[in-house]
Design brief:
Oligomer: heterodimer
Number of helices of chain A: 12
Radius of gyration of chain A: 21 Å
Helix content of chain A: 40-55%
Distance between the termini of chain B: 53 Å
CATH superfamily of the largest domain in chain B: P-loop containing nucleotide triphosphate hydrolases
Structural class of chain B: alpha/beta
Strand content of chain A: 15-25%
Order of helices and strands of chain A: EHEHHHHEHEHHEHHEEHEH
Strand content of chain B: 15-25%
CATH architecture of the largest domain in chain A: 3-Layer(aba) Sandwich
Number of domains of chain A: 2
Shape of chain A: globular
Distance between the termini of chain A: 52 Å
Helix content of chain B: 40-55%
Order of helices and strands of chain B: EHEHHHHEHEHHEHHEEHEH
Chain lengths: ~270, ~270
């Protein structure tokens, strides 16, 4: 069975729909749990992590903050959930967190502006103009955040396998369509795609572990995992020894073999440029 | 079952997929025939029609040319070919030609750039850069044309019911998803949608007939049909043409009544102003 990610996009009511898809496919529905698990990993309050993904950053925040640690934490959490069993994920980060995994069915729901405005007006009792402004605002903020996290525009149709226009079909019909697509042979896991997911999960797990080490938080170490074989490359500041890093990574479950190729720069050079 | 339009966008697999869908449903598969028929019936050179739909206009053409006659000829022809409802249309702009009809399932196929580059290179021996360039050109030209004809961007996901990413699923998978969508209750013909289709068919047939007549061609007319009753309004070049219009409209099979709201301004007056 496939792993399904559902993103409401410009269509608001996607949670109920995703829950029903999960029920039809008899697999767990996952949404907030990813955030909870990720916030535990990167030791950031869940509310803050949610803000990071959802809300417009202050202009100065955009300079200050590197979203990479958050992406890694989310990715590690998502991989863990997807590895354990097939899931139906609903939310705005799912489609970007499992890149290159063949048995992930990425679904985007869209709806034209007019439809959206009606929806928002109903829920929040706004007039048409205010509703439009509200939608614009939310979408712009979300686009910027997701762009910062994944480097792609969530509206780019090429990231998804299936896009459904919710103005043209009922929620029940969309649920049936998604459940149907999830059963296609195209999205059944193969040994290869399972292995790819395991590799991705291990990569994310190692990266997330390295982030919990305060002195490594802002050091960019690239991690590659292939069937338990880990390759680490990057530039280490003098304050961190290769030995320390290796010790940390070796202790992670699933790591069978570790190769590292670090370049060290004397901290004096780093400090004075 | 609905009429299905599959727009291949730039995925290059529209025809094969349409044929497979048509075969499973016992439908006819229609593509270029619409262009051929439209040119035969309404006296527009096929090459010209093809060029208009496929290629980008010269900048000066955009100023000079009214694209409406071509659109209407195509619309009238497609409506006639799709009269029995058992049609998969895989030519250009099907989704726009039959817009507003409930029992039309509008599908867009997408594919990311690398996938398309591979495809183009398979068909024509081009370098990577040349292929990318070619795709960009084709896309841009197509967008301009469709923008000029319908005032809408073909890449707008809200104009379709279903968007499938051909890089993320096999042709067989795409076929199964389209078949599942076609069997949804949303897309089954109802009395109202059948009537809307008949009105669109008659209206566009009348309109195309008027446009094809050498005497009326230069007029700016709007045509609407309601259950055999045809309303024509707009401007003709001189008064005598109104009778000519009524005569032409009455000759179209299916027309039971004609109501006109026509005024005339001689071209001299327009030029003089």
């Amino acid at each position: 069975m496939a792993i399904v990610t559902i993103f409401g996009g410009t269509f608001g009511d996607d949670e109920e729909l995703a829950r029903n898809v999960a029920r039809k496919l008899r697999c767990p529905f996952v949404s907030r749990q990813i955030f909870v698990a990720a916030s535990e990993r990167c030791e950031v309050p869940e509310a803050k992590l949610n803000d990071i993904v959802e809300k417009e950053p202050h202009w100065w925040e955009r300079w200050q903050e590197n979203p990479r640690p958050y992406r890694i934490a989310l990715q590690a959490a998502m991989c863990e959930a997807a590895l354990a069993e097939d899931i139906v994920y609903q939310g705005h980060v799912g489609h970007g967190l499992l890149p290159g995994i063949r048995h992930v069915l990425r679904v985007l729901l869209t709806a034209p502006m007019g439809y959206r405005i009606e929806q928002v007006r109903e829920r929040q009792g706004l007039d048409a103009k205010a509703a439009r402004r509200y939608i614009d605002h939310v979408e712009k903020a979300r686009s910027r955040r997701l762009m910062a996290l994944f480097g792609t525009d969530w509206r780019d149709p090429e990231q998804y396998a299936v896009i459904l226009n919710m103005a043209q079909m009922s929620a029940v019909a969309a649920e049936n369509m998604i459940a149907h697509a999830a059963k296609l042979t195209d999205y059944q896991p193969t040994d290869e795609s399972r292995q790819a997911l395991e590799d991705l999960a291990l990569t994310a797990n190692v990266q997330a572990h390295l982030l919990t080490y305060p002195r490594l938080r802002h050091v960019n170490i690239s991690v590659r995992a292939k069937q338990g074989e880990i390759t680490l490359t990057g530039i280490l500041p003098q304050s961190v020894s290769e030995y320390e890093v290796r010790r940390m990574v070796e202790g992670i479950p699933g790591v069978k073999n570790l190769t590292s190729d670090f370049v060290s720069i004397p901290s004096r050079v780093l400090r004075y440029g | 079952m609905p009429i299905i339009t599959i727009y291949q966008g730039a995925s290059g697999v529209g025809q094969e997929l349409a044929e497979a869908v048509a075969q499973s449903l016992g439908y006819r598969c229609v593509g270029r025939e619409v262009l051929v028929e439209a040119s035969r019936r309404y006296g527009i050179p096929e090459a010209k029609l093809n060029e208009i739909v496929e290629k980008g206009p010269h900048w000066w053409e955009r100023l000079l040319q009214d694209l409406r006659p071509y659109r209407i000829a195509l619309q009238a022809t497609l409506c006639e070919l799709a009269q029995d409802g058992k049609v998969v249309y895989h030519g250009h702009i099907g989704h726009e030609l039959l817009s507003g009809i409930g029992h039309v399932l509008k599908v867009l196929l997408t594919a990311p750039m690398p996938f398309r580059i591979e495809q183009i290179r398979g068909r024509q021996t081009l370098t990577d850069t040349a292929a990318r360039h070619y795709i960009d050109e084709v896309d841009k030209a197509r967008s301009r044309r469709l923008m000029a004809m319908f005032g809408a961007d073909w890449r707008d996901p809200n104009r379709y019911d279903l968007i499938l990413n051909m890089a993320k699923m096999s042709r067989e998978g795409a076929k199964l998803v389209i078949l599942a969508a076609a069997s949804l209750a949303e897309y089954q013909p109802t009395a109202a949608s059948e009537q809307a289709f008949k009105d669109l068919a008659l209206g566009s047939r009348v309109h195309a007939t008027l446009m094809a007549s050498s005497s009326v061609r230069g007029s700016a007319l709007d045509v609407r049909a309601e259950d055999g009753h045809v309303y024509v309004k707009g401007r003709v070049d001189h008064e005598d043409l109104e009778d000519e219009v009524v005569k032409l409209v009455k000759n179209v099979p299916g027309v039971t009544r004609v109501t006109t709201n026509i005024y005339s301004i001689p071209p001299e007056a327009v030029l003089g102003a």
